[in-house]
Amino acid sequence: MSLEVTDLTIDIGDRRVVDGVSFDVPDGARVGLIGESGSGKSLTALAILGLLPDAAVAGGSVRWNGRELIGLPDRELADLRGDEIGIVFQEPQTALNPIRTIGRQIGESVRIHEGLSRSEVRARAVAEAARVALPDPARIVSRYPHQLSGGQRQRAAIAMALACRPRLLIADEPTTALDVTIQAEILELLLSLVTDDGMSLVFITHDLAVLSQIATHAVVLEDGRVVETGPISTLLTSPASEVTRGLLRDATATLWSPDRGDR
């Protein structure tokens, strides 16, 4: 299955915030959307799944395995979310429901899409918690989000997104709120899971150093427009746009920051 985004536009009121964005994600590919805050990368991701704010209007084309998603009824989009396309958000504290147990939230998509019994859902939730290396998974599925650390909450959010083994994962800055050590663990986990399942990946970030660890190709955005595309190796060695050169300078400064040590 492949994702094809063609001339995507997003308007909020009389302002065009995404203007003619196009890129492809072939089956099994790992593509990054990168840019500074306000570049349109997160809105682009939300448009793919029909999760834009009510005030936003999308145009152009988003095709998943040949099926047009722009304008698709929400009920049909809901059938795709979690089943064929999963999403991990930046801040799990807001993505997770504070009054539901971790196990109930991990098991929700398999209950909906696979029609499992209550006992089967719990067993699946425990298995998925173990898969993302949550400690003592049989116990942790009975806990609530506030009882977990930030890194554990993000692992739970990843388990939720991948429980139904989607063919495409969208990860919207999933490590930004985490410290450097936990960030590295989450990136390693995501890469392992995506590779093992043969999933396609759209990884959203403002950090070229982070993107280089998980994606092979990148789409660079500025003010809602694509300014450069290409392999990560090319962006790191021969950036063509000033935006990418700025991202590279930031990445280099971060990698050699005294706060990070010699990493």
Largest pleated sheet? 6 strands, mixed
Per DSSP, what share of the residues sits in E-state strands of 2 or more residues?
Answer: 15-25%
The CATH superfamily of the domain at 1-84 and 197-263 is known as P-loop containing nucleotide triphosphate hydrolases
Q: What is the molecular shape?
A: globular
What is the mean predicted local confidence, pLDDT?
91
Terminal residue distance: 36 Å
CATH topology of the domain at 1-84 and 197-263: Rossmann fold
Radius of gyration (CA) equals 18 Å
Overall structural class, as computed from helix and strand content, comes to: alpha/beta
CATH architecture of the domain at 1-84 and 197-263: 3-Layer(aba) Sandwich
**Quantity of strands, as a count:** 10
Helix count? Answer: 11
CATH class of the domain at 1-84 and 197-263: Alpha Beta
SSE topology string: EEEHEEHEHHHHHEHEHEEHH
Helix fraction, binned, reads 25-40%
Strand line-up in the sheet with most strands:
6-7-8-3-9-10
Low-confidence stretches: none
